[in-house]
Design a protein that fits this description.
By secondary structure, this protein is an all-alpha fold. The chain is 68% helix and 0% strand.
Length: 679
């Protein structure tokens, strides 16, 4: 129901300010996130990403490696360099201040929504301004977007949105003016979107569909545009394929495991396809009622459904209905048909109908489909209204939209608070995600880490017990969750339940002998139980897989020392030094091991090296003086003790030792001076 709007458009007087209003509204929605810290995937793509942490120097590596390559060479099969480049720049300029990063996310989102409104205003230029305005505002306010905007890692989706909005704007200018100058803007904007996130490929279909919503646009004019966008997408995916397959490590198969995506892991076609179509119902539920928002939907938060189940059948019928409606109404040049087609295109990858992805479901997958949903909602209300009074219809639409915006805005503001930190997010979600193995794992792991940061014994004990509860629940949901078992073992060790930890680690190793970290943690559990030979054997298994682990050789050296095998201990400690020559802890143990073996020359050499690295170290000066004493070098012993007492005059052990040695040298008067200092 398209109407002339020149004299009856309620917002015509304010049309010059509407874009600014969209910007301000979008920014205010997320203003309460600016002082948040890092959370969830921020760790893997920022804090633990070596290329990002290298600042300027890391940018060449970011451009030539896969997305999470900076996390110990992990190959996730993704190529999204632009957001990582921005994080590297922020690391260099602002030392990775999360407030700066959150502020940038807010501004990016606000500007993208502003630019999106400018494009929508052109697409729906024959409609009252309230139509593109309410669509843009409903898109901006939808609480589903909190995962993208409130989480710094969501920069990849934000950049993708910015590239989409800019591509739409330049495409509209090209169609309206037929000026070739806009081709450059289209190419750069679309490439920007592709380099931000691979799913941007669907925009080569979404942008032409949006343009066709203006009935004055001839579809033949869109052929060069669609062809160009498709060709650019193909070129990008060829580049991506080259980069991810050139990495030293193959693409990790865990992306398609039962834990990450049960659909991809399902062997039964009835379960696979039933779950795929049931997922379409989940999309609709989240879009209509974005109330129960969760940071993780992995196994088994959304159970698999058979194609013969009620949800499987309903999902299939829903998808067929949408597909038929899109084709039927689009061929009749009906705008609602194009709206449904836009939704199907924007959910093309998330639907998993044509390919499986590395996640079952996540709210970020609906980031762009929200646009199609907002368009369909507003147009359905507007086109189906029987109201004859044009201004009254706009007022009714305005009031309806206002109600939704208020509800969405309140929910968004509330959800933003959950994203303040890992702990706040995990605690807020656990009651809604009891069936998610990873949600339980996340909270259990975070609680154990928080326990280690506390100095209060009761707090430590309480958090460790809570941690054990959630990690155990993660294992009950997914018994093969090796990371959960590994972390539970660490908690058991902290609770002085070493035998339980050993049992867990041995079980993990039986399930996967290549799960490297278990050998290390098993060795430390044996060490705590004073089973030192078992500790050494397990750690030797570890260094076979991770040969450059100085800490592993240190632990083996300590274990051998506890077995009074000091020659063996010296060998392990020297291996640790070959990896980290200036490791003070290793040097200290090695010096003492040499001393016990009466290898005084080597002990003295080691102690002097420590003093070069850490001058006037109290314990080292004392150890050096003992070493001199054992050799009968009493004068050198006295000089070493005097150096120690010059910096640490109240060291009782040094005072007692120097008194004893001075008296042995017959220097009783000097000894008496030191004795008086002890009184």
């Amino acid at each position: 129901m398209k109407r002339e709007t020149s004299s009856t458009d309620l917002l015509n007087t304010y049309k010059a300010y509407l874009g600014y209003f969209v910007f301000i509204f979008s920014a205010l929605l997320y203003l309460n996130t600016w002082n948040h810290s890092f959370a969830l995937d921020d760790y893997s793509v920022i804090l633990e990403h070596s290329h990002v942490q290298n600042g300027w120097k890391g940018i060449p590596d970011i451009l030539t490696t896969n997305y999470r390559n900076g996390q110990s060479g992990f190959n996730d099969g993704l190529y999204r360099p632009l957001s990582l480049v921005s994080f590297a720049v922020e690391k260099e300029l602002f030392d990775g201040n999360p407030r700066v990063s959150h502020s940038i996310n807010i501004l990016l989102y606000a500007f993208s929504c502003f630019l999106l409104f400018i494009g929508l205003k052109q697409v729906f230029r024959k409609y009252p301004l309230l139509i593109p305005l309410t669509i843009a505002l409903l898109f901006a306010a939808n609480p589903i977007h909190t995962e993208v905007v409130a989480n710094i890692k969501g920069r990849d989706d934000l950049f993708s949105l910015l590239g989409f909005a800019a591509s739409l704007y330049f495409s509209l200018r090209l169609i309206r003016t037929e000026k070739s100058v806009y081709w450059m803007g289209i190419l750069l904007s679309f490439l920007f979107a592709l380099l931000s996130k691979e799913s941007s490929i669907v925009y080569c279909g979404a942008i032409p569909i949006l343009l066709l919503m203006d009935k004055e646009v001839n579809w033949k004019k869109l052929i060069p545009l669609t062809t160009t966008l498709t060709a650019l997408s193909i070129a990008f995916f060829f580049l991506r394929w080259q980069i991810v397959h050139a990495m030293p490590n193959p693409i990790d198969e865990g992306n398609f495991s039962l834990l990450n995506n049960p659909i991809a892991a399902a062997n039964d076609w009835k379960l696979k396809w039933g779950s795929i179509f049931a997922l379409q119902i989940t999309f609709l539920q989240k879009l209509l009622f974005p109330l129960e928002l969760i940071h993780d939907y992995s196994y088994n938060q959304i159970p698999l459904n058979s194609i013969l189940s009620l949800k499987g059948i309903a999902g299939l019928l829903l998808y067929l209905f949408l597909l038929f409606s899109a084709i039927y109404y689009s061929l009749r040049n009906k705008i609602l048909g194009f709206g449904i087609a836009l939704y199907l295109v924007l959910t093309l990858i998330a639907s998993q109908i044509f390919l499986q992805i590395g996640v079952h479901f996540a709210e970020r997958l609906l980031f762009m489909p929200v646009l199609a949903f907002a368009i369909l909602l507003i147009l359905l209300i507007y086109e189906s209204s029987s109201q004859k009074n044009f201004k009254k219809l706009q007022k009714q639409l305005f009031l309806f939209s206002l109600l939704i915006l208020v509800l969405f805005g309140l929910k968004t503001s509330q959800r933003n608070k959950d994203w303040k930190s890992n702990l706040s997010l995990y605690e807020a979600d656990i009651s809604k995600a009891e069936s998610s193995a990873r949600a339980n794992y996340n909270l259990g792991t975070e609680l154990s880490e928080m326990a280690m940061l506390s100095s209060n014994t009761k707090t430590i004990q309480s958090r460790l017990n809570q941690s054990a509860f959630y990690l155990q629940r993660a294992l009950e949901i997914y018994p093969d969750y090796l990371d959960a078992a590994n972390n539970l073992g660490i908690v058991y060790k902290s609770l002085k339940q070493g035998a339980k930890a050993v049992e867990l680690y041995l079980n993990n190793i039986a399930k996967d002998p290549d799960y490297t970290k278990n050998y290390y943690n098993l060795a430390t559990a044996y060490f705590d139980l004073k089973q030192y030979e078992n500790c050494i054997r397990s750690m030797q298994q570890y260094v076979q897989r991770v040969p450059n682990a100085a800490s592993a050789y240190l632990i083996m050296g300590q274990a051998a020392g506890n077995l009074n095998q000091f020659k063996r201990a010296s060998g392990f400690l020297n291996q640790a030094l070959s990896i980290e020559p200036n490791n003070l802890e290793v040097l200290n143990f090695l010096g003492m091991a040499y001393g016990i073996q009466k290898d005084y020359a080597n002990a003295e050499r080691v102690f002097h090296k420590i003093l070069q690295l850490k001058p006037n170290d109290q314990q080292t000066l004392l150890n050096l003086s003992i070493n001199y004493h054992e050799q009968g070098k009493l004068e050198q012993e006295v000089n070493s003790l005097k150096s120690l007492l010059r910096f640490y005059p109240n060291n009782t052990a040094a005072l007692q030792q120097i008194i004893f040695t001075l008296e042995a040298l017959g220097r009783t008067e000097e000894a008496q001076n030191y004795r008086s200092k002890m009184q």
